[in-house]
Write the C-alpha coordinates for this entry.
Amino acid sequence: ADEGRPLTSACTYSVVGTTQAARKWTLSATAPDFAPTTRDQRRAFTSQEVVRLGPEAVDVVVSGAARAGNWLPTAGLDRVALDMRLYDVPLATTFQPGTPLPRIQRVSCP
Protein backbone atom coordinates (compact mmCIF):
# COMPACT_ATOMS: atom_id res chain seq x y z
CA ALA A 1 0.00 0.00 0.00
CA ASP A 2 0.95 3.63 -0.40
CA GLU A 3 2.63 4.65 2.88
CA GLY A 4 0.47 2.08 4.67
CA ARG A 5 -2.81 3.46 3.30
CA PRO A 6 -5.16 1.23 1.27
CA LEU A 7 -5.18 1.93 -2.47
CA THR A 8 -8.43 3.33 -3.90
CA SER A 9 -9.67 4.00 -7.43
CA ALA A 10 -10.45 7.61 -6.43
CA CYS A 11 -6.70 8.31 -6.34
CA THR A 12 -3.97 8.22 -8.97
CA TYR A 13 -0.76 6.27 -8.31
CA SER A 14 2.54 5.86 -10.06
CA VAL A 15 4.26 2.46 -10.07
CA VAL A 16 7.90 3.08 -10.98
CA GLY A 17 11.10 1.12 -10.52
CA THR A 18 13.15 -1.81 -11.67
CA THR A 19 12.77 -5.57 -11.59
CA GLN A 20 16.41 -6.51 -11.89
CA ALA A 21 15.86 -10.09 -10.81
CA ALA A 22 13.24 -10.87 -13.50
CA ARG A 23 13.43 -10.90 -17.28
CA LYS A 24 9.64 -10.61 -17.61
CA TRP A 25 6.85 -9.28 -15.40
CA THR A 26 3.12 -8.55 -15.27
CA LEU A 27 1.30 -5.89 -13.24
CA SER A 28 -2.47 -6.16 -12.75
CA ALA A 29 -5.07 -4.19 -10.81
CA THR A 30 -7.81 -6.10 -9.01
CA ALA A 31 -10.16 -5.82 -6.08
CA PRO A 32 -8.58 -6.92 -2.77
CA ASP A 33 -10.25 -10.34 -3.22
CA PHE A 34 -8.47 -10.56 -6.63
CA ALA A 35 -11.70 -10.04 -8.64
CA PRO A 36 -10.71 -8.36 -11.95
CA THR A 37 -11.58 -4.83 -12.98
CA THR A 38 -14.37 -4.34 -15.52
CA ARG A 39 -14.18 -6.48 -18.64
CA ASP A 40 -14.09 -3.55 -21.05
CA GLN A 41 -10.82 -2.16 -19.75
CA ARG A 42 -7.19 -3.21 -19.70
CA ARG A 43 -6.59 -5.51 -16.74
CA ALA A 44 -2.79 -5.73 -16.76
CA PHE A 45 0.48 -4.69 -18.35
CA THR A 46 3.38 -6.95 -19.26
CA SER A 47 7.03 -6.08 -19.66
CA GLN A 48 6.67 -6.77 -23.42
CA GLU A 49 3.88 -4.24 -24.06
CA VAL A 50 4.61 -1.36 -21.68
CA VAL A 51 5.77 1.83 -23.38
CA ARG A 52 9.17 2.78 -21.96
CA LEU A 53 9.03 6.38 -20.76
CA GLY A 54 12.51 6.43 -19.28
CA PRO A 55 15.25 4.23 -17.90
CA GLU A 56 12.97 2.49 -15.38
CA ALA A 57 11.76 -1.00 -16.29
CA VAL A 58 8.31 -0.29 -14.80
CA ASP A 59 6.50 3.03 -15.30
CA VAL A 60 2.71 2.63 -15.00
CA VAL A 61 -0.07 5.03 -13.88
CA VAL A 62 -2.87 3.40 -11.87
CA SER A 63 -6.10 5.42 -11.75
CA GLY A 64 -9.87 5.27 -11.98
CA ALA A 65 -9.77 8.12 -14.53
CA ALA A 66 -8.16 7.88 -17.96
CA ARG A 67 -4.52 8.99 -18.13
CA ALA A 68 -1.97 9.32 -20.92
CA GLY A 69 0.80 6.75 -21.21
CA ASN A 70 0.83 3.37 -19.50
CA TRP A 71 -2.58 3.65 -17.80
CA LEU A 72 -3.90 0.74 -15.73
CA PRO A 73 -7.61 1.48 -15.05
CA THR A 74 -9.27 0.83 -11.69
CA ALA A 75 -12.76 2.24 -12.37
CA GLY A 76 -15.50 0.37 -10.56
CA LEU A 77 -13.31 -0.67 -7.64
CA ASP A 78 -13.55 0.99 -4.24
CA ARG A 79 -10.34 -0.56 -2.97
CA VAL A 80 -7.55 -1.69 -5.27
CA ALA A 81 -4.92 -4.41 -5.03
CA LEU A 82 -1.88 -4.48 -7.31
CA ASP A 83 -0.45 -7.86 -8.25
CA MET A 84 3.06 -7.99 -9.74
CA ARG A 85 4.39 -11.31 -10.96
CA LEU A 86 8.02 -11.83 -11.83
CA TYR A 87 9.02 -14.47 -14.39
CA ASP A 88 12.30 -16.05 -15.44
CA VAL A 89 13.96 -15.25 -12.12
CA PRO A 90 17.36 -16.92 -11.58
CA LEU A 91 17.21 -19.75 -9.04
CA ALA A 92 19.92 -18.13 -6.94
CA THR A 93 17.90 -14.92 -6.51
CA THR A 94 16.82 -14.07 -2.99
CA PHE A 95 14.72 -11.07 -2.12
CA GLN A 96 16.02 -9.27 0.94
CA PRO A 97 15.44 -5.79 2.35
CA GLY A 98 16.98 -3.38 -0.13
CA THR A 99 16.28 -5.54 -3.20
CA PRO A 100 15.23 -3.03 -5.89
CA LEU A 101 11.55 -3.42 -6.71
CA PRO A 102 8.99 -0.98 -8.12
CA ARG A 103 7.47 1.48 -5.65
CA ILE A 104 3.91 2.77 -5.42
CA GLN A 105 3.58 6.52 -5.03
CA ARG A 106 0.36 8.48 -4.57
CA VAL A 107 0.26 11.20 -7.26
CA SER A 108 -3.10 12.79 -6.47
CA CYS A 109 -6.21 12.14 -4.45
CA PRO A 110 -9.44 14.14 -4.08
